[in-house]
């Protein structure tokens, strides 16, 4: 028998219908459970894609040291992928990330370097590039690497199209590196240009793990504004409240950015009728427990 490896288990995640949160509506609200990936998030897809495609090009070989700046999920996914493929992994992240995220990265054998909360992701990205320039490894660069959206163009997008039998009218995704929304948008628009692509960014002052309101000079180079039909600004309280409601009313245990995506979908649902909406649940809630975000009622 030809048994799968752990790498074969990335992707093909469930798409499920929300039962209580939507209320009385003619719309169908669906969420894609990316926390079902082996390392627990949607980032498993681009992590494996960036390493495997770099291998095929001959850019990296097993045993090399890879470097990446991350706020959490990509780092965990890359640590897993590096363990699968036999690479050394150095991850650079802000020190205010949750304890569970840090512990998961080191559990997979990655070296972890912390920068201050003030330096943030911008500082982490700068340090990664400096380390590469100093000869300490190769930066995969999820923010500018086309292999990131390719993972979603070839995986997430086709899965959603097939799982909805082509009936999807709206796709909603939080935006961090923007790889998910770029790849899925490209695929879905090729199937049906009328599908509405909705991106989510935090309001000024909101701190929602995994999504960013990037300064212009740090905007991911893979991002193409023309591929997003609408951008919704999301407040932290609304995202967190919806996250907690998903766990308590739907049995879907996820992180804050996923709560924000569903909150945006609920807003959109009040504007239209007979729509089929899909939002990305990008990770699981267990990696946020130490932050206390689930302690509130």
TrEMBL record:
Cofactor dependence: pyridoxal 5'-phosphate
Keyword terms of this UniProt record: Amino-acid biosynthesis, Cysteine biosynthesis, Pyridoxal phosphate, Transferase
Homology family: Belongs to the cysteine synthase/cystathionine beta-synthase family.
PROSITE patterns, A to Z: CYS_SYNTHASE
NCBIfam families found in the cross-reference section: cysKM, cysM, PRK11761.1
Keyword Transferase among UniProt keywords: yes
EC number: 2.5.1.47
One GO BP annotation of this record: cysteine biosynthetic process from serine
EC class of the enzyme, as a word: transferase
Catalytic activity entry: O-acetyl-L-serine + hydrogen sulfide = L-cysteine + acetate
Gene3D superfamilies reported for this sequence: 3.40.50.1100
Organism the protein comes from: Pseudomonas mangrovi
Matches recorded under InterPro entries: Cys_synth (IPR005856), Cys_Synth/Cystath_Beta-Synth (IPR050214), CysM (IPR005858), P-phosphate_BS (IPR001216), TrpB-like_PALP (IPR001926), TrpB-like_PALP_sf (IPR036052)
Identification of the protein by name: Cysteine synthase
Coiled coil stretches, renumbered: none
Pathway: Amino-acid biosynthesis; L-cysteine biosynthesis; L-cysteine from L-serine: step 2/2
